Amino acid sequence: MKPAADLAVIGGGLAGVEAAWQAAQRGYRVAVLEMRPQLMTPAHRTADLAELVCSNSLRSNQLTNAVGLLKEEMRRLGSLVMDWAERTAVPAGAALAVDREAFAAGITAALASHPMVEIVRREVTELPGDPGDLAHGAGVCVLASGPLTSELLAASLAEFTGIEHLYFYDAVAPVVEAETIDRSRVFPASRYEKGDPEGYLNCPLSREEYDAFYEALVGAEAHPRRSFDKAIFFEGCLPVEEIARRGRHALRFGSMKPVGLVDPGTGRRPWAVVQLRPENTLKTLYNLVGFQTNLKWGEQRRVFSLIPGLEKAAFARYGVMHRNTFIDSPRLLKATLQFRGRDKVLAGGQLTGVEGYVESAATGLVAGLNGARILAGLSPLVFPAATAVGSLCAHVSGGGADKTGGAGAADGAQGTGRLRRVAFQPMNANYGLLPPLENLVRDRRERNLYLSERALKALDDFIKDHVLDLAPVTWRR
Ligand SMILES: Cc1cc2nc3c(=O)[nH]c(=O)nc-3n(C[C@H](O)[C@H](O)[C@H](O)COP(=O)(O)OP(=O)(O)OC[C@H]3O[C@@H](n4cnc5c(N)ncnc54)[C@H](O)[C@@H]3O)c2cc1C
């Protein structure tokens, strides 16, 4: 019997629609297997594909910002999500925000009317096994079921990857770009001079600074806690703002304890300390140790900028605490987004350990494009590490400029109901993932612009040399 599709996409979210589009535009029959509306996730409200579950902003649209760069790269790669984001944009200054209903409806209609796409409304309960036995009879499959993957599929995924390689919560501290830390205000040291003397950067706070920080923290606005996120708090992993609410000095006896540290500037033990730990081997990124938080992103910027040394810090990613199904990608995925040892199964979206709408769509784009290449008998592509999309694929596959797989970890990542630390943490697009420029450029805006120019040049060359050998077909609609 003729299979129903060449490529099956599990999940019609931000990643899934982009994966489907890339393969369908190259002439392959695609089945998008989406469980809504039969089975809803706790966050989605509609039956539309590419529903934005929270904010309607796709964040910065500028080439001085890594997510702005990622958007431009996606435009050049023929992204469906970027096309509809622009068609449905609403005024948002330097950001790209959309009319969420028009955005999701436009994308759903574009796929529903595509001659090579079939949208199948059903829950996939098991992961495709061996080649020849893939979902919906397809030869290649893209797994893009997202952070709220259904329970049955998550159980099957745990079997497929090994339970220790699947995470259900994301509880991470903010990460800042190293170059934006004011070194004149911080000092390197490990507690009690044990271990690497450069192990941590310490931000010392005087009593007055601590009091001001404390007041700002307990008064800051947090995301509303959703019922499906509660489990994470029962696990004993409390946000820093909730620990602070237990008493003015709770943090001084917890993650901000100053014991074992002497500020070389004063020769004394500080009143309190925030420790910064390298997030990667290049030390281009640092996380705020023990600062997992549920505060709104703008509030994190405002409150954490009160910490001495972080006044002008650029946040590579903000702290989050929410339900998030993601796999230990550095151990499971190649930079082509194929599963190691299962070449015909690819992954895209938040499940791979990227964070954010645009990042999810971008990795879906790579998975779909590579799925089409496998069907065409061409080798799947590894995007250049100097591009934002390539740097994300490198990050999730453990081979990036940040060498995530073997580097330091943010505190508080959770596993299957037990607290445990993992080396791999989900990541937004950021310049810290790109290889540094050869020449030092002090001004941050200027440096970011150079990095973006370098990325776009690398991408244009890459498209010319590699992507166009399987160019999109022009469909009449
Ligand atoms: C509550 C919440 C709020 C978020 N807010 C933001 C935000 O404001 N800004 C931001 O940039 N990012 C946000 N994110 C992070 C992330 O960028 C989005 O979740 C994004 O939608 C992820 O894209 P995706 O394609 O990986 O998953 P999704 O967009 O969630 O798509 C996955 C799809 O798979 C379907 N599915 C699941 N299981 C199955 C199954 N077994 N069979 C068939 N279909 C299935 C789902 O119904 C869904 O349509 C948020 C995440 C969560 C959980």
Listing every helix as H and every strand as E from the N terminus to the C terminus, the arrangement reads EHEEHHEEHEEHEEEEHHHEEHEEHEEHHH
Q: Mind telling me the CATH superfamily name of the largest domain? A: FAD/NAD(P)-binding domain
Helix content: 25-40%
By secondary-structure content and strand pairing, the structural class works out as alpha+beta
Domains, number: 2
Main CATH class of the largest domain:
Alpha Beta
> What's the CATH topology label of the largest domain?
FAD/NAD(P)-binding domain
Strand content: 15-25%
- What does the main sheet amount to? 6 strands, mixed
Give the overall silhouette. globular
| CATH architecture level-2 label of the largest domain | 3-Layer(bba) Sandwich
Mean pLDDT: 89
| Strand segment tally | 17
Count of DSSP-assigned helices:
13
Distance between the termini: 29 Å
Q: Which strands sit side by side, in order, in the main sheet?
A: 6-2-1-7-17-16
* Low-confidence blocks of residues: 404-422
The set of bound ligands, ions and cofactors reads: flavin-adenine dinucleotide
